[in-house]
Amino acid sequence: MIIVFGAGGFIGTYLVHRLKDEGFSVLSVDVDKMSKAYFEIHDFPYIHLDITKGNDFSQLPKENVDTVIHLASMQPANISEEAYDPKAYIKVNVIGTLNILEYCRKVKVNKIIYAISHRNTQGLWGQGKAIKESNGRSIKYTGQYSMFSISESAAQDCIEHYGQEFGIKAIIFRLPPVYGYGPHTEIFWQGKPIKTGFQIFIENAINCEPIEVWGDCEKGRDIIYVKDVVEAFVCALKSNNAQGIFNITSGRLITLKQEVETIVKVFCREKSRSKIIYRPEKPNFIEPFLYDNTKAKEELGWSPRYSFEEMVVDYKKEMESGRFKFLIEKRKQLLRRKGATFKVETGGK
Question: Global pTM?
């Protein structure tokens, strides 16, 4: 059996569906009530559990659990200004992870796969070369991501410790921004709700309205599609030898210009395309970064399958199908709840 903590989040929802297709026996675990209803409707085994409460783990199986996938975390995109509390990051991301690890130790879980954000390498960004796993961390100790990065890094170290001390195979996936239909509507930025640029571009393209592109449009980022991330989990589950940290990234730079032009191509009507207006005098706050994914290719046998254009085309199909519409509704409820916090997967952003 595989247990997925944070199964009701963005990556978790896509992952649980994919694992079912692969024939794995999966138990979905999450703290969100909307997720409970969703998984019950789809006939997925589900347990409502708060990872910060050790006693909650008594609900879980005591044997025959081969792998735990840990996607549950607290992250800035889901926290309003009123709800910010640095202790909450430690409680959820560190204490919650320790509770999961203790469960793994007690029931003799063979393998744990943990997904972390790439934010703890922020000091390495913009240096003109692809970041490797061996380059380590470089945390930025100011800004809204600082406590998040500190807590995730501590959780990562706890997993490494339990892996070496108790023989649990520990695999850690470092994820850049993960795109896909679900979370890219509105987020909290600096504690304030905002509509994402990606969503604004899509809405304008659908309505054939002009799209403004601010700042240096040639700045690029390493972006990965959620379905490629999910395939990396499948590869890790099937691997007998893989351990350590892996960059699960596209391994290529997508510039802001390429991003907008692709969205216009995919979402606009052929005879009435949005006009793209470049405004280099306005800042866009994009920080460039690129990761080397060679290790994942060689040791996991995984490679990203989707180009950026293929990703946007598939995104449109998922949006039109309504298959993951509940993720949009969860996001709306989150933003309506003043002072609310929300526990979901890491990496999507």
Answer: 0.92
